[in-house]
């Protein structure tokens, strides 16, 4: 795969020019974007996947749900439905996608969860609900220029920052680095917990933010408890297990578990992997399975796995939490 991506390097300038021109047409107002008179917050990135959008959306939900009527709007990647879908008691991964299904399972009593590949239509449908909404959180919509969010949070990872990358197909960027200028704040995600100030300053220098942009650093914090549908267990009580992942980058999780000196094998599938019947048959032979919360949503309804399947929750820790949350709350109060 890496060899193929390098062989496709001649395509990079073409991809660069097409995406740059598209953005320029929006910047000049030639292509029209929809503005809104209520708070719309976009969480996105320049890179293709794996920057931590899902935990950031959950962070914002927890921050805002007590004071506002909040909705999340996602594309619903790999769902089997089309058009606008509002999550309800009959929702599944197949109808709304794995990440929205995760949002619904965690916050169904507090927020609305919807999917629509057309974000303009999705926002219109949400605003037409009898329950009037105060804030809409757009999941992975940074390149969806038809919608102009009032506040853009752009994520980039510590291990593969956008300023060291190039556009697809050889690199991972969906658009040129200059797209970062649209962000109101930039969050460097998946940082080591012990990242020091000098390293932060060096990264900020490479980002070269606009005066109006704030830069934050966040880390993944893993739970010390694993959960199944029926119970929870601690790492101290866990037996040898199989780690099953279908996410963009499982390295931080693997390193965390190895740091715990745990005994496990790792089955690493591609991001958003759709588990086949054969996959489930093979997994059912395992004595104990640990997975991510997102993968758990795709696997939990298989009866043969129910008694052996556990997930490890994660949270986002932001280095300057008061400043970050003050920015978000100042925007939502407008």
CATH architecture type of the largest domain? 3-Layer(aba) Sandwich
CATH fold description of the largest domain? Rossmann fold
**Broad structural category:** alpha/beta
Order of helices and strands: HHEHEEHHEHEEEHEEEEHEHEHEEH
Percentage of residues in DSSP E strands: 15-25%
Order of neighbouring strands in the sheet with most strands: 3-4-2-5-1-6-7-8-15
Average pLDDT score: 95
CATH class descriptor of the largest domain:
Alpha Beta
Indicate the low-confidence ranges by residue numbers: none
The largest β sheet comes out as: 9 strands, mixed
Proportion in helices? 25-40%
User: Helix tally?
Assistant: 11
Instruction: Report how far the terminal alpha carbons are from each other.
Output: 47 Å
Please write out the topology.
Layout: H1 2-7, H2 12-27, E1 40-45, H3 53-64, E2 70-74, E3 85-86, H4 93-96, H5 98-107, E4 111-115, H6 119-127, E5 135-139, E6 151-157, E7 185-189, H7 197-207, E8 214-222, E9 225-227, E10 232-234, E11 241-245, H8 251-259, E12 264-268, H9 277-284, E13 289-292, H10 293-299, E14 309-312, E15 314-318, H11 321-332
Parallel strand pairs: 1-5, 1-6, 2-4, 2-5, 6-7, 7-8, 11-12, 11-13, 13-14
Antiparallel strand pairs: 3-4, 8-15, 9-10
Mind explaining what this structure looks like?
Keywords: Transferase. It comes from Pseudotamlana agarivorans. The chain has 334 residues and is of the alpha/beta class. The chain has 2 domains: 171 residues, Rossmann fold (3-Layer(aba) Sandwich); 89 residues. It has 11 helices and 15 strands. The strands form 3 sheets. It has a 9-stranded mixed β-sheet with strand order 3-4-2-5-1-6-7-8-15, sandwiched between helices. A 4-stranded parallel β-sheet has the order 12-11-13-14. A two-stranded antiparallel ribbon has the order 9-10. Strand 7, helix 7 and strand 8 form a beta-alpha-beta unit. Helix 5 crosses helix 10. It is globular and about 60 Å long. The N and C termini lie far apart (47 Å). The relative contact order is 0.15. The model has no long low-confidence stretch (mean pLDDT 95).
């Amino acid at each position: 795969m890496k060899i193929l991506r390098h062989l496709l390097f001649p395509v990079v300038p073409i991809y660069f020019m097409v995406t740059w021109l598209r953005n320029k047409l929006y910047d000049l107002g030639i292509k029209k974007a929809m503005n809104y008179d209520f708070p719309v917050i976009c969480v996105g990135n320049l890179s293709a996947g794996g920057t931590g959008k899902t935990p950031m959306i959950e962070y914002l939900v927890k921050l805002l749900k007590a004071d506002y009527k909040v909705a999340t709007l996602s594309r619903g990647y790999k769902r089997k439905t089309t058009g606008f879908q509002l999550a309800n008691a009959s929702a599944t991964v197949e109808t709304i996608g794995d990440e929205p299904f995760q949002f619904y399972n965690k916050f169904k009593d507090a927020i609305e969860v919807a999917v629509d590949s057309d974000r303009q239509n999705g926002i219109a449908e949400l605003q037409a609900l009898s329950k009037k909404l105060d804030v809409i959180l757009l999941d992975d919509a940074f390149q969806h220029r038809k919608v102009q969010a009032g506040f853009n949070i752009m994520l980039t990872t510590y291990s593969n920052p956008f300023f060291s990358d190039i556009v697809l197909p050889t690199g991972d960027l969906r658009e040129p680095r200059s797209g970062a200028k649209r962000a109101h704040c930039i969050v460097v995600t998946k940082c080591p917990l012990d990242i020091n100030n000098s390293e932060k300053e060096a990264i900020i220098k490479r980002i070269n933010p606009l005066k109006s942009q704030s830069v934050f650093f966040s880390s993944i914090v893993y739970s010390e408890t694993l959960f199944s549908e029926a119970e929870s267990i601690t790492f101290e009580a866990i037996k040898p297990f199989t780690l099953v992942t279908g996410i963009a980058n499982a390295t931080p999780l693997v390193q965390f578990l190895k740091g715990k000196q745990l005994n496990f094998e790792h089955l690493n599938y591609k991001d958003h992997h759709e588990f086949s019947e054969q996959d489930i048959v093979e997994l059912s032979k395992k004595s104990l399975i640990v997975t991510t919360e997102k993968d758990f949503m795709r696997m939990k309804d298989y009866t043969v796995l129910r008694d052996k399947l556990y997930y490890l929750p994660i949270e986002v820790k932001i280095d300057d939490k008061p400043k970050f949350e003050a920015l978000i709350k100042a925007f939502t109060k407008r």
